[in-house]
Amino acid sequence: MSVLARGGLGPLCAAARAVIPCLWRGKYFSSGREPAETQVTPMLRHLIYKIKATGPITVAEYMKEVLTNPAKVFSQLGSVLKNCDISIHLVEVSRKLSEIQALTLTEEKIPLERNAGSPVYMKGVTKSGIPISWYRDLHDVPKGHSFYLAHEFFDVLPVHKFQKTPQGWREVFIDIDPQVSDKLRFVLAPCVTPAEVFIQRDEMRDHVEVCPEAGIIVQELSQRIALTGGAALIADYGHDGTKTDTFRGFCGHKLHDVLTAPGTADLTADVDFSYLRRMAEGQVASLGPIKQQMFLKNMGIDVRLKVLLDKSDEPARQQLLQGYDMLMNPKKMGERFNFFALLPHQRLHGRSHPMNACQSKPSVSPVAGFGELAWR
């Protein structure tokens, strides 16, 4: 089993930057709540020095710097899995987060193996006895029949932002505000930049966000699944090619201006599932995106809730109902979170299933979560 926790950021995003000695036009985009005053953080000083030295940076570079720059249920399955040849592989570029993961998942009595210079930079054993390893890049994870889980993984990968202008598409960069020396602002590139190649020719929106890193990862996942089997389940905030400006920051679970006090807030951009679908075409089949409310309903959450309520006292019942409302309410998480799956073509087309005597086509089993739950 492979779990994508955070993505390794390759050189592609950095290569897309071009320092162009032309006039940069300031452009305002909504980036969260406006702050009362500017907080000068070490990350802000680092970014200002970087911009002064090399010129405005892309939104993708900004996200990469802020999120990764260093200046700044298996226990229940133990009895089932202990005799299986199974291991867990986490892709995590943040050393701090990997330590938190290890503290939560691993057995305290078995010391962790650490090797900072190795692709497998940390190894351990889970509390249920399953080997677990940490990597910085998906490419380093061993290939084989795997089930990949990507939970809130793609929404933190760096995006390039583009605005349609009378002169064509122009990429959004980040520059120093000429009016305030320790403040950042969005600007439009004066001419075409290399990352524009990722925009679809028939794009109808006037503002788009593209994530080349997400495309590379989905293509890698697709190649692995097509070659060795398995599947991938992606759960994230996103849309099906309909939204425009989704780049935002959160600090303490509240909206935060993305250009203010960089390094103190989480940065995110909604996943464009239509882009992921295009990247997987021809190699594997895809399902979704489907809203969390429908996915969990298809997985039997209502039946599970009833079983738990029947066995719980009143305080626990209230807690269960509140949790259910948070997950299923369309105004809360029910329609904000999406599920998207990648699986071998034969899994959908039924080539691996026997044909019934009265059928002209092979019978196809439903894919859990993506079809209505039926009881027999």
UniProtKB/TrEMBL annotation:
Reaction(s) catalysed (UniProt annotation): L-arginyl-[protein] + 2 S-adenosyl-L-methionine = N(omega),N(omega)'-dimethyl-L-arginyl-[protein] + 2 S-adenosyl-L-homocysteine + 2 H(+)
GO biological process, one term: mitochondrial respiratory chain complex I assembly
Main enzyme class: transferase
GO molecular function terms attached to this record: protein-arginine omega-N symmetric methyltransferase activity
InterPro entries the record matches: NDUFAF7 (IPR003788), NDUFAF7_sf (IPR038375), SAM-dependent_MTases_sf (IPR029063)
Residue spans crossing the bilayer: none
EC identifiers of the protein: 2.1.1.320
Record's function text: Arginine methyltransferase involved in the assembly or stability of mitochondrial NADH:ubiquinone oxidoreductase complex (complex I).
Family: Belongs to the NDUFAF7 family.
Name of the molecule in the record: Protein arginine methyltransferase NDUFAF7
Organism: Callorhinus ursinus
